[in-house]
Amino acid sequence: MPKLPVTSGAALVRLAERQYREQRSTPRMSVIALRRTWELGSPLAVGGFGKVFEAKADDGKAAVVKLVPKAPGASRELLFEELSGLPNIVPIVDSGEWGDYYVLVMPRAKKSLRQHVEEAGGKLSVEETVTVLNDVVEALASLKAGVVHRDLKPANILLLGDHWCLADFGIARYAEATTAPDTHKYAMTPPYAAPEQWRGERATAATDVYALGVIAFELLQGRLPFPGPDFREQHLKQPCPAIGGCPPSLASLVNECLFKASPARPTPANILARLRASQRAQSPAAARLQEVNKSVVQRQAEQAAKMSAQQSRAAVRQDLFVDSQQSFNRILAMLRERVLEAAPSVNVSTNRALVFHLGDGTLIVDPVQTAPADCLATPGYEPPFDVIAYAAIAARKSRDRYGYEGRAHSLWFCDAHEEGAYRWYELAFMVRPGIPQRPTLNPFALSPTDTDAAGAFTPVMGVRQIAWKPVPFDQGDEEPFIERWLRWFAAAADGTLNHPSTMPEKSEGKFRSPRRKSGARF
């Protein structure tokens, strides 16, 4: 007869205490009276921060009850976001308190995305992946400012009717607020947690976008982009692996969602528009451009992964600069492909600047440079927006009899439209009317470090003013930008590029106005 291990009295006490806690934490099959009466059935799952049971209403309707423990430091209100009526979000049909638990009652879903992927063998087709992403992004795009899921993952995406819907809004927020020492790990799920979560920073909508990128990669490739076990190191520093077996436009979009610098990630609205556009048939030329897009994004991906555990403002700006270079190089590759496709005899040189020469015309793209912080600040005013990087593009010809030589635009990576949302913007400048100056390039480009450029954004009358308000030309808006400059290059090549008939030109752009500095006197 085998000898049984000896168990100390203290160990037996600890075992008894643990069993008692488990018994207390698991409710007996019972009836919960809230606004309606719910009869608990069999347990369905034990999540990171709650237990899920089958349930029936007093009229026999099936539902799901989630019991969330009343953890110290977290209030009931944290569990509930007012999201009723928004698309593709699992509604809370009843709620309240029951013993040591807060109670959430939700409709019974057919299955979770996690279950669906497992049933499908670990990955989904491109078409089904786009369908799932469309539903999820539609929900994210509908959220009001400040509402963040924080724990987006396949287990929290449920099939209700014919749509994939987001569940557990408020759970992660509740978990983050608790002071219990063993619950912080439930505030995020490591395989899907964004770099800013690993640094302990505040979650934003970009945090959900990052998790969406992880989910999209997993659905398309059948594996996680960052498989662990050192999730923190991988999410902070490793680039996204190559994505195959899908259209290049979709692969590039997933790459952008997984940018390490959160402000450089596309917004849910931008993702939704690009997903819908991806479902339209592509021309052969567009397909070639998408292939170039994908290869450039992948070649530059390692640069976008240089994150440090402790980030100062300067380090955040450096990460954004790396992401800006990746995005800019991708757009340059698209432009180059289009130029050579249309005019194979174009002479191309890449000595510092990228230069195309054809006939009498030249198209020049200057390299990306880093912009110092607060470079657009002027006396008495805060900067209107933050510029991370800048370049310029110009279409030139031989000077005509009026001294006109062509036009140039500034290209700035900044948050011109929405604070904290960084993209590449195209803008241009002009001499303010009445000032006796006649530039040979009009409109023209200025560096954000030029005091005349900064002054053009203030209400104070200066030498320069905006001729072309900032318009984005990345994240799905590359085509209009490329078409403009192909047209102007062609006009420069045959000598028909003329001075704009009216200035400022109507670019349909916009920018945020500068604020007066506190205590400034005028």
Protein architecture, described:
By secondary structure, the protein is of the alpha+beta class. It folds into three domains: 108 residues, Transferase(Phosphotransferase) domain 1 (Transferase(Phosphotransferase), domain 1), CATH 1.10.510.10; 217 residues, Transferase(Phosphotransferase), domain 1 (Orthogonal Bundle), CATH 1.10.510; 148 residues, no CATH class. It is 31% helix and 20% strand. The chain is built from 13 helices and 17 strands. Strands 10, 11, 12, 13, 14, 15, 16 and 17 form an eight-stranded antiparallel β-sheet that branches. It is elongated, with a radius of gyration of 28 Å. The termini are far apart. The N terminus is likely disordered.
Write a brief structural summary.
By secondary structure, the chain is an alpha+beta fold.
State the end-to-end distance.
96 Å
The CATH architecture classification of the largest domain is Orthogonal Bundle
CATH 4th-level superfamily of the largest domain: Transferase(Phosphotransferase) domain 1
Uncertain regions: pLDDT < 50 for 5+ in a row?
Answer: 1-13, 15-26, 180-186, 306-310
The number of helices is 13
Helix content: 25-40%
Calculate Rg over CA atoms.
28 Å
**Count of individual beta strands:** 17
Largest sheet: 8 strands, antiparallel
Question: Any idea of the CATH topology of the largest domain?
Answer: Transferase(Phosphotransferase), domain 1
Classify the secondary structure makeup into a structural class.
alpha+beta
> Into which percentage range does the β-strand content fall?
15-25%
Based on the structure, what is the oligomeric state of the protein chains? single chain
How many domain units?
Answer: 3
Shape: elongated
How would you spell out the order of helices and strands?
HEEEEEEEHHEEHHHHHHHHEEEEEEEHEH
